[in-house]
Amino acid sequence: MIDAAQIDHLAQLARLQLTPEERQTMQDDLNSILGYFEQLSAVHTEGVAEMQRPVTLVNVLRDDVPAEAFNVSVVAALAPEMQDNFIRVPRTVEAD
Fold it and tell me: Which whole-number Å values give the CA distances from 85 to 12, 70, 76, 79, 82, in the listed order?
């Protein structure tokens, strides 16, 4: 189980300023959580197939259907700034 020194180390890593009462509460809570893992490890699971998800994933994406592109004048009206029929945006990568 987790001791006081480990709680102090975790608090230091997380940059937490804990009172003695908070340290004790954290220690009790973490030991309780680890107790649940001990219970789970005691369960007999031999012969049980591994499961990645409790539900089946379904692709909810629509088909990619080609459509007509926006007219340049419509895009230009929505864009904050245009240059040579392109939307001008602030530089995000420094030039060498």
Answer: 54, 12, 8, 11, 6
Helix (H) or strand (E) holding 39: helix 20-41
Strand ranges (E), 1-96: 82-83, 86-87
Length in residues, the chain: 96
pLDDT at 96 over 80: no
Average pLDDT of 82-96? 84
Q: Which of 31-35, 42-46, 47-51 has the lowest mean pLDDT?
A: 47-51
Euclidean distance between CA atoms 42 and 8, whole angstroms: 29
